[in-house]
Amino acid sequence: MSANSVEFGFVAALEREIAGLTRCWNAVRFADVSQAIYLNQHAALICGGTGVARAYAATKVLIEKYSPRMLISIGFAGSCVTDLRPGSIVVPAALLEAATGRTFRCAFGTGLVVTADRVADKALKRQLAARFSAQAVDMEGTGVAAAAIEFQREFAAIKVISDGAEEDLGFLSGFVTPEGFDTARFVAHIALRPRLWPAVAALQRNSKMASAALQGAVRECVSDWRDFSMKSSSAATKVSMKESC
Q: What is the pTM of this model?
């Protein structure tokens, strides 16, 4: 590898999903890139925004700047099966793009994650489970995969469950933008709708749990790649949620 290259390139959607890592890693900025890129000794991480197009563009930036050998889509996902609860790590063997039906094989893992173009409500989760036997649904994975294939890089995904199969996050749909989440408008919206407060409180708890688990998985992946990939291909992945740099 060249002096500016890294072993792993991680692509997330939002910084809040991996805030513990961005605090520990070194932030680097380029004049021609709107997002910061976070570095440690072996990896680079970028938060590209929400959706397939943003994930694809962010992955291309990582390839251009740091030429990672392995590209890894990381982030939150909704569960399509009842045995995957918030905080569970999912490392799929394949990603499927719901809009096109295109399937991307991962370098390792088990099961299937479907990439959708909207926040998955309960009905969509059930539909994806029935039609594709999906374990989980995200919004960015196939964007990273498409760029990896285009530039002939290995690809994998590490997802964490942020909402269970019976949880309905459809009420978030109008506030998710390519740039991220419109928090100010959402707060104004729920302030007048007390019926949503329990769901929002549960989402906050689950998101905190999911973020800790995801960061633990990324740390394990970077520190012992072979062990992580073997474990992820043979059984449900369990990771430490202890915060460390």
A: 0.88
